[in-house]
Amino acid sequence: MSNISAGRTLRRLRESAGLSVSDVGNAIGKQGKTVNAWENGRGEPDINALITLSSLYRVRNLLAIIAVDMYGDKATIRSELTPDEEGFLARYHSLDHYGKLTVMRVTDSENERVRLTGMSERREEPLRYIEIPVSKHPFYPGNGIRETELFETTEFIRIPENDLYTGADFAVRVDGAGYEPRFSDGDILLIKRQPELQIGEIGIFSVDNEVYLRGNGHGRLISINPGLDDITLTGKHKIHCIGKIIAKK
Question: 129-248: which CATH topology?
Fold first, then answer.
């Protein structure tokens, strides 16, 4: 593609839309000199910028128009907008900076309202819940829970059956502020049983049959509490992973 031909087209479309170089630059997050460079054949916009420019210039297929203009600048540029949309854009472009900000705030609010309304209308089935056991022994640094005690339960909790909580097998409570800021007092941690964790993931580990809430590191279990040391993974200890923390409530 000829950058010079493409640049002429970009300038013509911008002027046809009644926009300044600064207007375009602000809309796509670029400096005005970058837009000038494109229009003068010194570089070209990437695909994300082209998508935004198509909207700004009120054309559906900017790449097609540029391709046609490579064979002459006689291509007819037709807006794909309705008369009402054309009128709205014309009034928008006549506003000052504060007026445009007001319009954007209103449209953002209305877009969110429509999105939430659509979600409500699409919700045809009520939420379903599952029940999982909660360990009777809360977690806090240095509490010394034995692995056999971890699965002693006196209660169950109901959690929504959704993507966030899928796979949760049991839960533990956090007691105190010893794991902050990662976890807070009263948090309920949902755990999925699995024998291995990726580096950086947090889970429940058994070390010589004593249970720890730790992060999985390179050759060590990383302490979440700043006052406790990491546990080095050597043949000296009997260590295995019980499960992964997948969410908290």
Answer: Umud Fragment, subunit A (2.10.109)
